[in-house]
Amino acid sequence: MIFKRLLFLLCLASVYVASAQQKADLIIYNAKIATMVNAGEFKQAIAMQNGLILATGDSKSILKTYKSAATKLVDAGGKTVIPGLNDSHMHAIREGLNFNMELRWDGVKTLKRAMEMLKEQAARTPPGAWVKVVGGWNEFQFEEKRQPTIDEINAAVPDKPVFITYLYGKAFVNQKGIEVLGYDKNTNYPGSLIELDKDGKPTGLLYAKETPMAIYRTLALTGKLTPEERINSSEHFYREINSFGITSVVDAAGGSQNYDADYQASLALAKSGKLTVRTAYYLFAQQKGKELTDYEKWVTQTHPNKNDHLLMANGYAMEGAGENLIATGADFENFLEPRIVLPSEMETDLEPIIRLLVKNRWPFRLHATYGESIDRMLNVFEKVNKDTPFNGLRWFFDHAETITDAELARVKALGGGVAVQFRMYYQGELYTKMYGQPKTQLPPIKKMLAMGIPVGMGTDAPRISTYNPWMALHWLLTGQTIGGLQFWPKEEVLDKFTALQLYTSGSAWCSGEQDVKGKLVKGMYADMAILSDDYFTAVPDDVKKITSVMTIVNGKVVYAAGPYAAQCPPIDEPIPAWSPVKCYGGYQK
């Protein structure tokens, strides 16, 4: 009898535990929830618990089944909810180190206003610090349809050093900046041009020719934030991209982003639980001629899927190698200049690194702009695969604007994918001037998808393009540049479901997470965004105006605005006190 009573009590307790486990931490109801399982499939409510999705369904049944006294409720008021956006190629970790000291021209509609911002920021900037605009803009976004002149920059800011980058093809340094840098007629960066006037003095214009060395090296001389400021800056940058509904990024590393010193600010946020974007990062060798040595060292120091986030799975995880593996394979995308042929030693340099990565089962990604370069890289991959099989190892090309049909077939045969970006949104006019109007979609996304090749979507932000994902979705839906040029044939644009798929489950493949993110279904990560406007009914030109009014990562609200602003978690003020972020924020919405 005693045994039976104990058994009954245990069973009763298990029922209570199971019941408690089925109650949600958070429920969004009265919503239009795009599950992204099938086109046109929407639910009214979604329940979350412990960072995962419990269920979706109609509002009445979800509230009845999963609501408890402790459940937080969000009435979406009929707004659209989508899976959190995932940028498959962003330089988020590096931008976090710099965001607080950069003036962003992203979204600025006139050159007049851009120059006003420059002058205003210069007045706030203390002596010894630079005023910097680093990427995210071009002249075609401005009503004036032109870049600033160096004379205009000098007139606006005569007494503080100024550095402005234009894509990776050009940079502006005002006369005060030239003075601070000490540049003269003898200053030389191989592969780049420092323009001189008739008297042999630098005009302040820097041009990338074979390489962007002058731009990179000059940027490195314009100052850094302190360790404390870097952490604060990173937190503000992640908050900034949360404001657009981004919940994940696949970080492509980058020039001057050294492992592991330059990963410490984001690591500090991850270890304290303050990192609000799931970040999968890759490692990029920095020193020409020492790339193999770096990777040989790193494969003994760390490993793919190593997660350092305190509170969530895959929150800050090392994923593999890239986007550049070797200096001789840097397929420079400067459409102001003709294509640069990669040096003959590229294959010899690349092969031992690919062998090392495949042997150690390290996923890799490789920056490649032109089909001519991709062909040579694939020759190396196929050679390695013969005796060191890829055998399902995740790998992909980044960019691949002019990849050919034959090369796509070879990518598929090796089990690879492609991470595409909307670089042509900013560079389509330049490409057209250099090579003519493309007759088909470029990069050929529809063809990739038809062949069953995994495709992820991203921005390559922020030194080329803006990090605003809705601008990238506008590009996918219209085939137009930021200036309105019809770059793709209209018949090759993507439908809304497919475009959003690329930005959710498509990008999740690039970090091997396609089974846990990208759809709003039971068991998936509770990462999602309530949108300001309905993506599925908005005309394409209105899509680029969309923002998030609530962003949820791991089942927690990490950003909120508009009717939900009171629920936005607090964040420290940007530092230093003169930070452009304090006055302007980032993207000019």
Sequence-ordered SSE layout with sheet pairings:
Blueprint: H1 2-21, E1 26-29, E2 32-34, E3 42-43, E4 45-49, E5 52-57, H2 59-66, E6 72-75, E7 80-83, E8 85-90, H3 92-98, H4 111-124, E9 131-134, H5 150-156, E10 162-166, E11 170-173, H6 175-181, E12 192-196, E13 202-208, H7 213-220, H8 227-242, E14 246-251, H9 264-271, E15 278-283, H10 291-301, E16 306-307, E17 316-321, H11 346-359, E18 364-368, H12 371-387, E19 395-399, H13 405-413, E20 417-421, H14 423-435, H15 445-450, E21 455-458, H16 469-478, H17 496-509, E22 528-531, H18 540-543, E23 548-553, E24 556-560, H19 580-584
Keywords: Hydrolase, Signal
Signal peptide: 1-20
Domain Amidohydrolase: 73-559
Task: Describe the structure concisely.
By secondary structure, the protein is α/β, with parallel strands linked by helices.
